Amino acid sequence: MADFALDPAFAATSQPIVSLRLSEARLQSDARFPWIVLIPRIPDAVELEDLAPADLAQLSAEILAAGRAVRAAGAALGRPVEKLNVGQLGNITRQLHLHVVGRRSDDPAWPGPVWGQGTAAAYEPLELETAMTAAREALKS
User: Fold this and answer.
1) SS3 at position 134
2) Got the DSSP string for 36-89?
3) Residue 96 has pLDDT above 80, yes or no
4) pLDDT by residue (tens digit) across 39-54?
5) Which DSSP letter does residue 125 get?
6) pLDDT class of 1 with cuts at 50, 70, 90
7) What is the longest distance spanned by two Cα atoms in the chain?
8) Over 90: is that where the pLDDT of 141 sits?
9) Can you tell me the distance from the alpha carbon of 14 to that of 23, in angstroms, rounded to the nearest whole number?
């Protein structure tokens, strides 16, 4: 993992939460949805098939942990998550990454996908700290 470099697109659109065993966990900078992006630290990985079986198993565990963290962030912000969406697209940013998005029936993109819907809303500083703290604590447990 020494040759791993985070695609600059992630630095521009998300905040680092914590480094997990395999992945970097980052909070997407869009206050409309509690949303974590997992980026496995595997150089040149683009598709899930690029992962060794053990890494794929670890990523699965990290997806479940990210789901708990998304739920924790939503609850901390007073917007409990009703449904988790997990997606792996990479059409624009090719570096392997997975999105874990908390959804609610009253969110601005419901019931459609979050991608390409409206304009991202910046977190207020206190909201960002609340979401980050809740997600970090959930990911550490």
Assistant:
1) helix
2) EEEEE--TT--SGGGS-HHHHHHHHHHHHHHHHHHHHHHHHTT---SEEEEE--
3) yes
4) 999 999 999 999 999 9
5) H
6) low
7) 43
8) no
9) 14
Nearest to 103 by CA among 78, 76, 74, 66: 74
> What tokens were used for 102?
């908390």
Distance (Å, rounded) from C-alpha 75 to C-alpha 55? Answer: 30
CB atoms within 10 A of CB 73: 28
Sheet holding 23-28, edge to edge: 14-19, 23-28, 35-40, 98-103, 83-87
The encoded tokens of residue 1 equal 């993992």
**What are the backbone dihedrals phi and psi of residue 50, each rounded to the nearest 5 degrees, phi first?**
-80, -10
Amino acid symbol at 27? L
